[in-house]
């Protein structure tokens, strides 16, 4: 028997994250998604794990 899929929140907006060095863009995205328990999330572009800078993360329909 399969486990029921955990449903997140419908949260919409854009979050500007100051990505630290050593964290990939996808790692940062997954942490934000878990923190806000968001159904949908994505980033607008990838930063190298060695790079720092602003990473826009879109939540929901944003």
Summarize the structure.
This protein is of the alpha+beta class and 62 residues long.
Mean pLDDT score: 91
The largest β sheet comes out as: 3 strands, antiparallel
Strand content: 25-35%
H/E element string? EHEE
- Spatial sequence of strands, sheet with the most strands: 1-3-2
Shape: globular
Q: How many distinct domains?
A: 1
Low-confidence stretches: none
Which structural class matches the secondary elements?
alpha+beta
Helix content: 10-25%
What distance lies between the first and last C-alpha atoms, to the nearest angstrom? 35 Å
**How many strands?**
3
EC number: 5.4.99.25
Protein name: tRNA pseudouridine(55) synthase
GO molecular function, one term: RNA binding
Enzyme class: isomerase
Notes on the structure:
By secondary structure, this protein is α+β, with helices and mostly antiparallel strands. The protein has one domain. The protein is 19% helix and 27% strand. It has one helix and three strands. The chain has one helix at residues 25-36, and strands at residues 13-19, 41-43, 53-59. The protein has a three-stranded antiparallel beta sheet with strand order 1-3-2, covered by helices on one side. It is globular, with a radius of gyration of 13 Å. Belongs to the pseudouridine synthase TruB family. Type 1 subfamily. InterPro entries: PsdUridine_synth_cat_dom_sf, PsdUridine_synth_N, tRNA_psdUridine_synth_TruB.
């Amino acid at each position: 028997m399969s486990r029921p899929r955990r449903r997140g929140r419908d949260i919409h907006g854009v979050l500007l994250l100051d990505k630290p060095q050593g964290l990939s863009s996808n790692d940062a995205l997954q942490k934000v998604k878990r923190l806000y328990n968001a159904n949908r999330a994505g980033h607008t572009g990838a930063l190298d794990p060695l790079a720092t800078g602003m990473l826009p993360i879109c939540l929901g329909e944003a």
